[in-house]
Amino acid sequence: MSQTMPEMLSDEERRALACVAGLMIPASAEYGVPGADDDAILADMVASLGRDGPAVRAALARLDALAGGRFAGLAAPERAAVAARLRAEGGPAVATLNRVVLQCYYRDDRVLASLGIEPRAPFPKGHALEQGDWSLLEPVRRRGKLWRDAP
Amino acid sequence: MADTVDVLIIGSGASGAAVAWSLAETKMRIVCLEQGDWMNPAEYPSTGRDWEARVHGDYATSPNIRARPTDYPINDDNSPIKVVNFNGVGGGTVMYTGHFPRLHPSDFRVRSLDGVADDWPVDYATLEPFFAENDRMMGVSGLAGDPAGPPRQPPMPPLPLGKTGTRWAQAMNTLGWHWWPSDTTLATQDYEGRARCINLGHCTPGCAQGAKASTDITYWPAAIRAGVELRTRCRVREITTNAEGMASGVVYYDAEGVERFQAAEVVILACNGVGTPRLLLNSASGRFPNGLANSSGLVGRNLMFHPYIQVYGYSDEPLDGNRGPPLCLWSKEFYETDPARDFVRGYMFQFNRGVGVINEAITSAADGRLPWGEDHHSAYRRLVHRRMSLSAVIEDLPEAHNRVTLDPVLKDGHGIPSPRIDYTVGENSRRMIAHGIARATEILHAAGAHDIGVQNPILYGGWHLLGTARMGTDPARSVVNEWGRSHDVRNLFIVDGSVFVTAGGVNPTSTIQALALYIADSMKRRLATLFD
Fold it and tell me: How far is A35 from chain B (nearest CA, A)?
């Protein structure tokens, strides 16, 4: 990944990130996918935080503040309530946290496979795109000139 | 470096590359200074698994987010539309989507036809041969016969319709409204050393395949072979003038940050509608206290962005998503003025193909469509690869209070004052936007889409930077004359979107480049009397 930087989360922040990520996207047996708190997905988040690190840390700190202590130390129902409050508050830091979780979750091989998407970079294989039926243009061709002359 | 060159071009993007290539046949000594680097397509986002994430980082369209050392910050806090650009060899063409419509003939006669703004001092017929030459140099894919514009012959066939395009086309036929495959600079065949498009689906942040025509791979190789010198990592601070009030050269910082002076007989600005006024205003002197070439007071004024709106909905079945270029079709149904409407001028619809899986997730989460928790997965599967969106390119009229000035505080990495943007969406544009949202919603319904959403305006939608050093025959009401020469400084030329008198309602790159070729041709025809 191009934006890798040294890990910048403490163990406590990492636990909080795992908790909130798992609340955002839990594992699903129905769809056969891990949650966003999966070890490999979480490791991707931490390793690729880069310039998003400060905003994510701010969001995690806000979780602790809303929890009145350690967010990760709350019981599950209380964690869900605090996370919901954070989401409702919104703001740039929460948006960044959301994006970081989503962009790592939806590039995981298992998640992409569950969506029927080949887990790879677009280049060099590209994709196939059907040509379509250009006879659809016939009604447009019949309309005649649509632009104005400008003497 | 201090040896005087015949022509010094500042900026290597759409217009700088075109003017360099055109002037190269004169055998003059031509140097171009570019503040960015050469691009390496092997490093473009589509080569990696993090391809969607990088548009939020080193390939963000906003220079304030991207924040490369080669970028300069822009204070656009006082604008509902944020500036989008790229600094590198190829400039904005590295990070444009490659939509390539031309302005219409009526766009050059706005005052005469519609009673607003001003007529241009040039017309479509004058530019037509330069449009065609530029289509050949950039390599345009499209389809001849569009009844919504003057005849043209794109050298390559259009992009495929695909599933999404077919859905759009059927919807437009149901409504009886115009549509046509877009002219694009995405090569659909191998073309002049460029490989054909293989549907990477991620055109904007650089094309790893080289199918998209950015000027680093079109004009520049030809210009350099013809003898033009291109110096990268050279950021110009100011244009200097001599005792006669002529431009004498530029002061710039080289790759090592060393201050240099380059003397020149002719200076050509090609820095876009924000960079050019910034540089002119930063070139104020005792003789030109309000900035260079600014006796009219119009440098930086009349900024036009094209407020972009996007309306979107969701299909019941998967469409193309990101498995093809985002570009697809256009519609000029509402382009020309219609007296029955409550606004003058018009807009073009740009139909999009779809977005990637992460883009869908992030956008839908921000819109409140994608819940946290157990329902996340089922909700997401109703969204992914089902998005249909279309954008209206709204023509905003020139308004003097929409402007670029110098920020009193913000500076770039070399300590050069940054631009500040003050911009509001005008009343005519607001009416046009309302019309566009209503029509786009009708189109989406006709296409069977549901859960309609609107972005108005697209926040990071300031792709088109126009009008801030406009052309005209009256020195009191324009910055450059009808062939791009400054009224005030007779060896200073501007060839970028700054010179637009009005914006039209289409993506401007094709017209910017046609104007640059026309100005270069005008210079070549007047070489013996260029400064008269």
Answer: 10
Residue B394 has φ and ψ, to the nearest 5°, of -80, 130
Measured in residues, chain B has a length of: 532
* CB proximity B431 to A under 8 Å: no
pLDDT, tens digit (0-9, with 9 covering 90-100), for B338-370? 999 999 999 999 999 999 999 999 999 999 999
This model of the complex carries an ipTM of 0.95
Give the integer Cα–Cα distance in Å for B10 and B228. Answer: 13
Question: Nearest C-alpha of chain B: how many angstroms from A87?
Answer: 9
Who contacts B501 (Cβ-Cβ below 8 Å, separation ≥6)?
B108, B110, B117, B118, B119, B120, B121, B398, B467, B470, B471, B472, B478
Architecture of domain B5-39+57-529: 3-Layer(bba) Sandwich (3.50)
Q: What residues does each domain of chain B span?
A: 5-39+57-529
Please name the residue of chain B whose CA is at the shortest distance from the CA of residue A144.
B147
Report how far residue B144's alpha carbon sits from residue B165's, in angstroms, rounded to the nearest whole number.
18
The strand pairing partners of B308, in sequence order, are: B393
Output b/e per residue, B358-395; b: 16+ Cβ within 10 A.
bbbbbbbbeeebbbbeeebbebbeebbbbbbbbbbbbb
Cβ contact, residue pair A147, B54, below 8 Å: no
Per-residue pLDDT at A8? 83
Could you tell me if B208 lies within 8 Å of chain A, comparing CB atoms?
Answer: yes
**Per-residue pLDDT at B2:** 60
